[in-house]
Amino acid sequence: MTVRQIVYSDNPLIRKKSHRVRQVDAGVQRLIDDMVETMREADGIGLAAIQVGVPYRLVVVEMPPEVAEGEELPPRPWELYVVVNPELARKSREMEEGVEGCLSVPGWVGEVVRHKSVTIKGLDRRGRKVRIKAEGLLARVFQHEIDHCDGILFTDHIEDPEKIWPVEEGTEEAAEARQGVRA
Ligand code: ZN
Question: How far is the CA of 27 from the centre of ligand 1 (A)?
């Protein structure tokens, strides 16, 4: 497994709309392994393939299975989710605001309104169909990652400048922000 270089928001590649994966072959499986390694190295809880420069609809998420928004994350091991060609099969009418950060937008966090619960469908790392019901923070991370597949960043959802603010790495505020999405 190799840690890959993360693509930042100043690189136009991050705005590219990713295309569907036709076949979950050995190359895709290697990419998945590298993405998991890269996400862990960056202390993130989610990563989309475009964030390592590959325009495939493919996301990895790793977090505790049940965490309320704003709650501190327990130590690893967490649950790993790999979804190829992810789609939102269902989304709740109920919305919820929560703090997000992004590995491609370092130094910034903001409050984003997302569906409170969603069902994600797609393929797993062996190409089998999967369906994941997600609520709260897990639902938020998946919505954030699926956005990446369409070239959308969390900052695009924020209109009010009061709802986005810089954080300095190593500060208490940054540690707090880490309890939100870093994905
Ligand atoms: Zn992100």
Answer: 23
pLDDT per position as a tens digit, 58-104: 999 998 866 766 777 888 789 999 999 999 999 999 999 999 999 99
> Which class is domain 12-178?
alpha beta
Q: Clarify whether 135 is annotated catalytic.
A: no
CA distance 141 to 33: 19
What separation in Å is there between the alpha carbon of 148 and the centre of ligand 1?
Answer: 7
Confidence of residue 178 (pLDDT cuts 50, 70, 90): low
121 pairs with which residues across the strands?
87, 131
Query: What contacts 33, CB < 8 A, 6 or more positions away?
Result: 1
- Rounded distance between C-alpha atoms, residue 21 and residue 115, angstroms: 26
Å from CA of 20 to ligand 1 middle: 19
Distance 26 CA to ligand 1 centre (A): 25
Strands (E), 42-128: 46-48, 58-63, 79-91, 95-102, 105-115, 117-123
Percent of the chain with pLDDT over 90: 80
Residue 85 pLDDT? 98
How crowded is residue 73: how many other Cβ atoms within 10 Å of its Cβ? 13
Reduce the DSSP state of residue 138 to 3 states and report it: helix
Q: Which one is catalytic: 62, 69, 100, 145?
A: 145
